[in-house]
TrEMBL record:
<feature type="domain" description="GST C-terminal">
    <location>
        <begin position="104"/>
        <end position="228"/>
    </location>
</feature>
<comment type="similarity">
    <text>Belongs to the GST superfamily.</text>
</comment>
<dbReference type="GO" id="GO:0016740">
    <property type="term" value="F:transferase activity"/>
</dbReference>
<dbReference type="InterPro" id="IPR010987">
    <property type="entry name" value="Glutathione-S-Trfase_C-like"/>
</dbReference>
<protein>
    <submittedName>
        <fullName>Glutathione S-transferase</fullName>
    </submittedName>
</protein>
<dbReference type="Pfam" id="PF02798">
    <property type="entry name" value="GST_N"/>
</dbReference>
<dbReference type="InterPro" id="IPR004046">
    <property type="entry name" value="GST_C"/>
</dbReference>
<feature type="domain" description="GST N-terminal">
    <location>
        <begin position="17"/>
        <end position="98"/>
    </location>
</feature>
<dbReference type="InterPro" id="IPR004045">
    <property type="entry name" value="Glutathione_S-Trfase_N"/>
</dbReference>
<dbReference type="Pfam" id="PF14497">
    <property type="entry name" value="GST_C_3"/>
</dbReference>
<dbReference type="InterPro" id="IPR036249">
    <property type="entry name" value="Thioredoxin-like_sf"/>
</dbReference>
<keyword id="KW-0808">Transferase</keyword>
<dbReference type="InterPro" id="IPR040079">
    <property type="entry name" value="Glutathione_S-Trfase"/>
</dbReference>
<dbReference type="InterPro" id="IPR036282">
    <property type="entry name" value="Glutathione-S-Trfase_C_sf"/>
</dbReference>
Length: 228
């Protein structure tokens, strides 16, 4: 029988059993996976890894992710690490409509471009500043904050350009939005303000309005501590 062009024929629409998510609850990398699992309405269970106690560097966890980082998932024996790789997997495997990661070459490249931003400028800018503040690390965060500010001003320009779309890579949400969301929404915790960026704040609100959106817990640090 001929399948519709958009149907994903080689995978079940839902996992047989809950997907196991190895995580740290205050990690934005982990939250992006939890958000995606919810947006796709997939069953999952969480396994909290105690990074403070070094559990992520113990043999049991290194067998799951030799890089010793969270997140990782186990989907009925398919074990994967790296948040963006996991987003790609979940979209390819379970998004039957292929809207979260389009098949079209140009559309997919737009998504990948922002995944790279999430793994680069975002991870080493606003996210790194937040983790330093959150865990009270004795490091100079000024270069991280500067990188976060530069990314936000670039994103503001992207979202207000004449050909701008409501979501970063398309008119509808994609995994690029999911990859960028958490560390940008929580940037004030690392002393990176969102106030000068109304288009970015409107975009964050559009993600928060999606069905089954789940937040990451807020931490009263950085600009949030000042505001509290
Ligand atoms: N590229 C990885 C980065 C993940 C990452 O940096 N995870 C942090 C927590 S947010 C971690 O596990 N850090 C411990 C370490 O690197 O030793 C991903 O996207 O999943």
């Amino acid at each position: 029988m001929t399948q519709p062009a958009t149907a994903h024929t080689d995978a079940p629409a839902r996992p047989d059993r809950p997907i196991k998510l190895y995580r740290l609850i205050l990690s934005g990398h982990c939250h992006r996976i939890e958000l995606m699992l919810n947006l796709l309405d997939l069953p999952y269970e969480t396994v909290d890894i105690d990074l403070g106690a070094g559990e992520h560097k113990q043999p049991a966890y290194l067998a799951i992710n030799p890089f010793g980082q969270v997140p990782a998932i186990d989907d009925n024996g398919v074990v994967l690490a790296d948040s963006n790789a996991i987003l790609v997997y979940l979209a390819n495997r379970y998004d039957t409509q292929r809207t979260w990661l389009p098949r079209d070459a140009v559309a997919a490249a737009h998504v990948q471009r922002w995944l790279s931003v999430a793994a680069g400028d975002l991870a080493f800018g606003a996210a790194a500043a937040r983790v330093a503040v959150l865990f009270n690390r004795d490091v100079d965060t000024s270069a991280m904050v500067e990188r976060g500010v530069l990314l936000l001003s670039r994103l503001e320009a992207h979202l207000t350009a004449p050909n701008a779309t409501p979501f970063v890579a398309a008119a509808i949400p994609t995994i690029a939005d999911v990859a960028l969301y958490t560390y940008l929404a929580h940037a004030p915790e690392g002393n990176v303000s969102l106030q000068p960026y109304p288009a970015v704040r409107a975009w964050l609100a559009r993600i928060e309005a999606l069905p089954r959106f789940v937040p990451m817990p807020a931490s009263p640090c950085g600009l949030n501590a000042v505001a509290a």
